[in-house]
Amino acid sequence: MTDSGGMGYGGVADRAPGSGHLGGGSTLLGYIGIDTIIEQMRKKTMKAGFDFNIMIVGQSGLGKSTLVNTLFKSQVSRWSSAWGSEFKLPKTVEIKAVSHVIEEGGVKMKLTVIDTPGFGDQINNENCWEPISKYINEQYEKFLKEEVNIARKKRIPDTRVHCCLYFISPTGHSLRQLDIEFMKHLSRMVNIVPVIAKSDTMTPDEKNEFKQRVRKELEVCGIEFYPQKEFDDDMEDKNENDKIREAMPFAVVGSDKEYQVNGKRVLGRKTAWGVIEVENPNHCEFALLRDFLIRTHLQDLKEITHNIHYETYRAKRLNENGGLHPISANDTQESNL
Fold first, then answer.
1. Can you give the residue ranges of the Septin-type G domain (predicted)?
2. Do the strands 107-115 and 96-104 form a parallel or antiparallel pair, or are they unpaired?
């Protein structure tokens, strides 16, 4: 029903006939309001907030914590949260997760940074990826057990790793065997994004040659990093992702220090030759990495994690021993006694 002012239900103004179309090409006789669903979804999502879990892997001294702090423009790494400056290198690979709620423009996101101190730092690094692989699978298992509960939570806490930033040492030569083994073992269970750390230690020519060499080695070893070609939805996705794949691994520099350059305060690293500006695309590819991870592909990273990696784990687990049995509320109470 519409009043004399032409207002429909909820105070939404009716549009003139001909403003919409049926699937077969017929014209709608008036405004329905289908186009408001995007705004409805936005409001609901804004209230619920987002989760994003990022893992950082690489040898110590490659600036992992600094880069993550730079990415999110806040102190979100373990150094600034729980472990302090007196952190001692562990003798084995450890998993350290720190969560923060960050807010921008009314959008809240629970960001969890998972660090892996000790990775690649031992004399014998054989199978040092196993604790990391175990942690990733444990998060899938945790989510799966919540899913099969008879009395499920309205919103299952998501601790699954959505992205693994793998830091490559800027040797300028080739990937280490450890790099290859790690990415080979984990590329099928998590979204791996390789980055060349501290790229300012190489000349532009050395950097470009190293990037090409790394891409070639990954291709020869059959290692697929994110965004994987097989998951491109359409030609638009493929064209966009092809440009990203050609630019990877991103050669980055991280810094949480500001300097004055041409009258502006910029994040950068000071050297004898001047300031390397972190967000200047002529100096390094940090801005490309940031835009890719946060501004264009964050939701896709989460969807690939849920629809591909988690689904693969879920199918495997449900096929084992006849699958998981639903857990009732009584079972949960008894297990806690």
1. 48-320
2. antiparallel
